[in-house]
């Protein structure tokens, strides 16, 4: 075991957060994208890792048509799943760097399992801890909506796991499913001398795309009750056509916030709710 594994969450001042859900379509990538912009606006330095084989986060910064020119093999997360691997980040904004996704990552599952398994990312963090602390305040990891060994790598390396859920009958069940999975990983990744888990990640739960329909109101009632009992339930992002528009145009909400057209009270309330939720997640 290396020092990072033995003192998870104590060595690095750089905070590592994974955004994961066992359900698709819950705005996972949008949350990562908007989080990166929010942190940059707050003066923080951010490194993004795109572990989703759909490469949605990568395409928010680089179109599919342009990716062959702007993304080289050395810029992708594939390199992080090699023993002693290194990936060269791409600068996508003043304070945001990206290690791009790779469609080939899914085909590496068995190879990863037979190699270092869940320990590739934590090994990468440990080897590069000084570089990370010098260059970044936060590392945000976007993942596929499953429980693969690639997602487990992110879990092991993270301080927190943000779990977004939408208004769906099985949404709360998906939270429990992910938390059970995390507990299984913690039980498997232990120090041989003490049998204590070195996986210290805690989950933070947020709602996404919450509107004003009957099902949405029922969701808000249930989620509010959970918030009253458990501080890891933080709140929700309201459904907004502006968020959808920002996604379509590959622009963060902050750009619309500066436009005269988007200064009504409804828009101001939206910005306030999103920023307030991010403040809870990132502690800024």
Describe this structure in words.
The protein has 284 residues and is an alpha/beta fold. The protein has a single domain, classed as P-loop containing nucleotide triphosphate hydrolases (Rossmann fold, 3-Layer(aba) Sandwich), CATH 3.40.50.300. The chain is 43% helix and 15% strand. The protein is built from 13 helices and eight strands. An eight-stranded mixed beta sheet has the order 3-4-2-5-1-6-7-8, sandwiched between helices. α9 links the parallel β6 and β7. α6 runs parallel beside α8. It starts with a helix and ends with a helix. The N terminus is likely disordered.
Tags for this model:
13 helices, Rossmann fold, alpha/beta, 284 residues
Shape annotation: globular
The sequence of SSEs as H and E is: HEHEHHEEHHHEHEHEHEHHH
For the residues shown, what is the average pLDDT?
92
Report the strand count: 8
- How many helical stretches? 13
Strand order of the largest sheet: 3-4-2-5-1-6-7-8
What helical percentage do the residues reach? 40-55%
Name the poorly predicted regions.
1-10
Find the CATH topology: Rossmann fold
Radius of gyration: 19 Å
CATH superfamily annotation: P-loop containing nucleotide triphosphate hydrolases
In the CATH hierarchy, the architecture is 3-Layer(aba) Sandwich
Q: Termini separation (Å)? A: 32 Å
Sheet having the most strands: 8 strands, mixed
Give me the secondary-structure category.
Answer: alpha/beta
| Residues in β-strands, percent | 15-25%
């Amino acid at each position: 075991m290396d020092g990072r594994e033995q003192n998870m969450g104590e060595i690095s001042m750089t905070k590592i957060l994974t955004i994961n859900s066992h359900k698709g379509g819950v705005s996972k990538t949008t949350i990562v994208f908007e989080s990166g912009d929010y942190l940059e606006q707050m003066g923080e330095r951010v490194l993004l890792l795109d572990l989703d084989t759909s490469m949605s986060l990568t395409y928010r910064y680089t179109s599919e048509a342009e990716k062959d020119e702007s993304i080289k093999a050395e810029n992708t997360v594939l390199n992080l799943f090699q023993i002693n691997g290194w990936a060269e980040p791409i600068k996508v904004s003043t304070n945001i760097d990206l290690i791009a996704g790779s469609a080939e990552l899914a085909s590496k599952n068995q190879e990863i399992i037979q190699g270092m398994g869940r320990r590739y990312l934590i090994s990468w963090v440990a080897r590069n801890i000084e570089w990370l602390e010098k260059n970044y305040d936060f590392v945000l990891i976007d993942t596929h909506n499953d429980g693969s060994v690639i997602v487990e790598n992110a879990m092991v390396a993270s301080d927190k796991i943000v779990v977004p859920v939408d208004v769906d009958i099985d949404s709360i069940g998906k939270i429990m499913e992910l938390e059970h999975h995390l507990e299984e990983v913690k039980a498997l990744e232990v120090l041989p001398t003490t049998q204590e888990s070195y996986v210290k990640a805690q989950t933070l739960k947020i709602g996404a795309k919450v509107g004003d329909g009957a099902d949405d109101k029922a969701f808000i009632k249930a989620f509010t009750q959970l918030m009253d009992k458990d501080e890891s339930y933080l709140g929700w992002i309201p459904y907004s056509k502006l968020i959808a528009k920002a996604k379509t145009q590959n622009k963060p909400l902050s750009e619309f916030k500066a436009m005269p057209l988007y200064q009504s009270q409804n828009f101001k309330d939206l910005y306030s709710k999103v920023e307030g939720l991010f403040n809870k997640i990132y502690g800024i």
